[in-house]
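Continuing the series of single-chain predictions for the mutant panel. This is the parent chain; the variants come on the following pages.
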Amino acid sequence: MRPFRRRDAAAIHEAVIASLEELQQWLPWASPDYSKIVSQQFVRDSIGAWNSGRAYDFTVRRINNPQRHIGNVSVWHLSRQNSVGEIGYWVRSDEARQGICTEAAAHILQIGFEELGLHRITLRTAAGNRASERVAEKLGFLREGLLRNEVKIGNHWVDHAIWGLLVEEWKTKRESDRIHSP
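Parent structure:
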């Protein structure tokens, strides 16, 4: 994982196009007209958000293939006053079901809780996106509710489940995982 660089736009575009069939079911920005210009704008916005401390987006890459974009993971503040943040993630379809998303999201939780000093982190999953829900469950998030018709994807509205994790719960789960790891 590393912050985005301007030269990442082409690799992001390739990953999105390769995964478009699945991504467009769940994410409003993943549409058939997704272009290289959209990728370039995302990278510019990401660099700007990072520099201003609004959000921290990371590209996920394999050490043995650093040119291939596997996905994104991000953390941002929802409330600085209350130390609340949110995370988001996606992984390209041909890299799914390998634990990559869970590993990257676990790392972004560590950044959120330890480096940003967050007290609570939330995430939202599109209702029915079982893969994303499974990542949340593995990380120890609790499903707290349903936000009805929260996001418009294409021509229809999609419900989002809201998940929450407190710093104390994260610390307990992390310690438990360490004890039970081989």
